[in-house]
Amino acid sequence: MDLKNSLYEQFRLAAENFATSSFLAVPRRLAQAWEIPNEILYGEALERVDALRNDYAAQGIGEGDRIALAFESRPEFVFHYLALNALGACIVPLNTDLTVPEMSYQLGHSGCSAVLGLAALAPLLRRAIEATGRNIPLSTNGPQGLRALWREHGRSAPISKPMEREAAILYTSGTTGQPKGCVLTNVYLQEAAGYNLQLPPHLAFAAGAERQMNPLPLYHMNAINSLGAAIMTGSCYVMPGRFSATHWWDDVADTRATRFKYLGIMIPALLGQPAAPRDRHSGVKVAFGAGVDPVLHERFEQRFAIPLIEVWGMTESGRFMCVDQEPRQIHTRACGRPLPGLEARIVDDSGQEVPHGTTGELVVRHSAQAPRYGFFSGYLDDPAATEAAWAGGWFHSGDLCTRAADGMFTFVDRKKNIVRRSGENISSAEVEAVLAASPLVKQVAVAAVPDALRDEEVLACVIAADEVARDRTLALSLHAFAEQRLAYYKPPGWIYFVDELPITGTQKVQKHRLFPDGFRPDLPGLHDVRDQKRWKK
To answer: pLDDT tens digits, residue range 295-313?
Structure first.
């Protein structure tokens, strides 16, 4: 792949080659609500981007500036992103579902020069800025709305090599604590996007013709990667807004999507929609995502005739692994094999590679000669965490996986989600998958809680199915359901019935927020079923 100085230059090249092809599309229901066209051509987008580029330049914005964007998942985000990228500025996409303290942390930590966003978000953005204690300019009227910038911390240092400039700072989901800012360069953006060009023929993008729908928010690496892939292939990026199971198939038909991205949490929601004659005739050829429950994988493919291609990836890595060939092992959590440009292996706690089939931590790199090439350039202002993640010359993912003799990697759990009970390692994902298969359960999250006798015990936070009494009888039924399918020590010892689970904007459960005031045995809705966990030969 021929790298350019910026992603903008790749976009300009695509706009020249595919001027009359669709670049961005939104469902008509959203186009009407947002008062924008439902299709935007490459040539039209280039005009919008270049106009914004000139407006930003007139305000003195350029290399070294960090600009926070709060345009949600709308085409405006893309125009501002590419315009700022053309000037060598760095964007900080904001998750507007965050609380004021959470958003103010990201604004303060990133040292933003300014914030631009939608007018409807102005009150929220003002409160977040005020909470930083800094006088950060805010505009809901584009670059023209900015006054002369007051840079409390100054610009970041200029970079002599444009490809290595900061292009974006994406914040991790913060499922286990304060989020880290992942610094992404123009090399990262292009390599991550170009990695999609290596997909085998049956999964490859049709240049100038593909229409990929992605409901993930634009502050997420998946969406940034997908947008880059559209630019690299002259294809259309379909923006359906916030995921809606009710509107999903109508939006697919309306935008003529040929493929889509998914998260595991979307699959049961789509399966829960009423059956329709078009289920097997949506026009979608393939879908890419992560985390589909093995119990539901085959059901979805049989009903909708769309293969769900599981992948593994992280913001830090940019590149991904992909289950790109048969057998796809859809009844497991197989998450793929690396394509050229990514190396992966499984190691123990001392960093030594383990035998095939042994659970260990997944570590990845570009190559032995250039381990970090194309990866994130580091955690913002946290070199210690960056170097710790790269211990031994491999990036440590924090994911526990196995590797088979044929090279297939299979996800087991997050390293931090392992419950250590009486010397046994229990995967929370395994217990979640079992409980999720019960018709009495709508959603579940499993976590470790302290136990004086056994170090830790398994706790299941359960959103019960509608019209099911959330009492001890249900708790005992769920324990018995799990006991029939798991070793005696794996079922939950505590079952906690809740109305909702704390989640991030990318639908990950924030397990550290399950008990904000600490775990207590007397919490309403909590049931102690530890006495049911008995060894049986």
So the answer is: 899 999 999 999 999 999 9
- Beta-bridge partners for 286: 259
Question: Which pLDDT does position 95 carry in this prediction?
Answer: 87
Q: Quickly count: other Cβ atoms within 10 Å of residue 271's Cβ.
A: 14
Q: In Å, how far are 156, 191, 320, 355, 392 from 366, measured between CA atoms?
A: 27, 11, 11, 22, 14
Find the helix packing angle between 186-194 and 7-17, rounded to 10°: 50
Which residue type does 195 have?
A: Y
The span from the CA of 193 to the CA of 450, in Å, is: 43
Q: Which of 335, 339, 337 is nearest to 366 (CA)?
A: 339
Find how far residue 75's CA is from the centre of its chain. 19
Q: How many angstroms from the chain centroid is the CA of residue 380?
A: 19
Task: Give start and end residues of each alpha helix (H) in 148-272.
Answer: 186-194, 221-233, 248-255, 266-271
336 forms beta bridges with 409
Burial class from Cβ neighbours inside 10 Å (0-12, 13-18, 19+) for residue 531 reads exposed
Q: Is the pLDDT reported for residue 506 higher than 70?
A: no
pLDDT band at 421 (very low <50, low <70, confident <90, very high): confident
User: Among candidates 468, 472, 484, which has minimal Cα distance to 528?
Assistant: 472
Percentage of residues in the chain having pLDDT higher than 90: 77
Query: Two tokens at 348?
Result: 């123990």
pLDDT band for position 155 (cuts 50, 70, 90) = low
pLDDT value of position 537: 41
Q: Minimal CA–CA distance to 295: which of 259, 335, 267, 327?
A: 267
Residue 176: its pLDDT value, please?
Answer: 47
What structural domains does the chain harbor?
A: 259-416 (3.40.50.12780), 422-532 (3.30.300.30)
